[in-house]
């Protein structure tokens, strides 16, 4: 187990290194730079700016400086937000995005599993159909339309919840709902199809024959097995949802991290591009590792070992 | 497909918003008035309780201001916050003219090269006195190459300013000197008739030397930000909320009526408009943000939308080195043949002004324009003549480039269609991501490309000097004319205002005779506002000043 984890962590570091390297060089290869602007500044000012941000150094030196920065978690100043460093931006934005993401995640996981289980238990009955209609809608209606729809009904028409901004719990409800819709639908469908498969297996029939209550069968025997694919999906989902969703954050005026991913690229804000990418990658690889460990908890048949597994 | 759905849904939503908004506002207004009414009934003797109600303006900043530092700011959001929290030697008044602000008075030498300012007795928001040294420090700091200020070139009018920024002269040689705590002497390179207006621009604002030297990040937090303007920053939750309160140390505080300005930072224009319709904001649209394009027709019909021209020109640039636009007649044919008024009425819909010259109306040199809009006859003749001169019977493939954006796309498509109809020319459209587009334009990788220009101060030189040098940073057209250059150089030395205006008008005439650019329209700003908000000053440059704003 420990050997396995150690090996995984080394692979994680290697993949992070590859991500940093690839992002760095691809980013530099894109035309335009942070100081390309509509009002072209005189050459001497451009030179001064480049000197200030050390963009005048040869590429390989910039690259090594950057690697050093990542290793010490000093991600450098932002080019666009002159008064902030990338660390500041992540420290400010991540808690907000994580808060919103955690709420949506809870909604998505519990809502999705419940919908999926109900649909599977009532296979081909109206409960199944209505749960799946919700799921199809959630998957196919884009988040921004759903968000505008919520805003229109819950805030403007009924005046129940604030339209936008981020100042307290009531401000988090609509964005969480909007953000949770698509993963909830996905989880519901995943759970349903797996549940149907599991429910048809011999051991469930045996349990039924023993006279166990449907509730006990579902909770104790079926759900655990049906959840494995859901857990696989959860790894990337958590990383995604915790680090912010650009569109939802934009529509609801949430001061999260999601916007930095997108805007930094438009602005060629090199340090922010790198910082957010590295940050996201770290969360992603850690989540994938946690998912692998989580398999063993849910399904005792799976054991972690680096060799010997069939 | 996605976009169509979005447009449909959002226009339905906006329509609904507009309808619901009417009801919403009616509902919210009595509620807002209620407290005032209550106090009136309880204590009828109290003198005008309505005045006691705190004056709070609720605005949306659209995005986080990147900095509160006047020396480093380069965007309008930062600019608006800085204008509210700082005061330059002059400030643009309601008459759009510069008035003494941090300077109490000034004298100008006969050669118009030396200005001596008497600094008003006033204080920074932290209580320190504002001295002439703060100005000297601020200007030299912006010119210091180490500061890497993007707008340092605004200070090039000061003697040795440009040289100091290039590292060719020492900062000590720059022509600004605090003779004592209250006297500032400024020496200029050339007589600069718009110098007093420049002083109202943020790069010329003072900064508190002690504060800046003590903390590199002073301009990023409410706690450490110090200004000398009508307001000060009370709190700044990054990317979320910024609150300005009246600065009690401001010299002209008696004329500042607002107690507080609360800024949200919502980026989405539709959300912003919904919040306005719902009574959560007092303002939506320009200058901090813009109105959603789909909502404009409805807002316009409702009569709530306000539109004001600003000093900016939207134009297409020709690459004058690549055929067929190396021929002036062909350039002219393309320029004359489009219907600007039609474009504005049908596509833009926010009262833009057709541009038949380079310089916008607020600083206009020739009010009649230099050519006729939609002059089809002349255009056709010129096209034929131009093609003959080039010795071709068929125009080569022509591509019109623009940066990816719904608005630019609509304009480009309309103009493409007009060229097809009016000149029988097929033009291809091409869009590119913003920074890639800029790079291509600066490198001459285009035939016709869109661009816009907004003035930094109210003088035609803003628009003319772009085309002074062939490889000048913002020319892009590769056009150069020695006569034009000569006239601009003359204008810098001319201290007689009327003569200078004549010189500049001649220069614009040359620009329009050679037509390296095709002016399309002069920008306007459109917004909706709470009718009880008064006195918000929108300058002709597109800046906003809340100094004398109040709520009725």
From TrEMBL, chain A:
Transmembrane spans: 9-27, 100-121, 133-153, 173-191, 230-252, 272-295
Cited Gene3D superfamilies: MetI-like (1.10.3720.10)
Keywords: Cell membrane, Membrane, Transmembrane, Transmembrane helix, Transport
Subcellular location: Cell membrane
Protein topology in the membrane: Multi-pass membrane protein
Ranges for domain ABC transmembrane type-1: 94-295
Any Pfam family hit: BPD_transp_1_N
Top-level taxon in the UniProt lineage: Bacteria
DNA-binding keyword on record: no
Recorded family membership: Belongs to the binding-protein-dependent transport system permease family.
Protein's name in the database: ABC transporter permease
Automatic annotation (TrEMBL), chain B:
InterPro entries listed in its UniProt record: Peptide/Ni-bd, SBP_5, SBP_5_dom
Signal peptide: 1-20
Region (Disordered): 30-51
Record Pfam families: SBP_bac_5 (PF00496)
UniProt keyword Signal present: yes
Keywords tagged on the record: Signal
Residues in Solute-binding protein family domain copies: 98-472
Feature: compositional bias, Low complexity: 30-49
PROSITE patterns: PROKAR_LIPOPROTEIN
Protein origin, superkingdom: Bacteria
Database matches in Gene3D superfamilies: Dipeptide-binding Protein, Domain 1, Dipeptide-binding Protein, Domain 3, Periplasmic binding protein-like II
PANTHER family noted in UniProt: DIPEPTIDE-BINDING PROTEIN DPPE, PERIPLASMIC BINDING COMPONENT OF ABC TRANSPORTER
Name of the protein described by the UniProt record: Peptide ABC transporter substrate-binding protein
Organism: Brevibacillus choshinensis
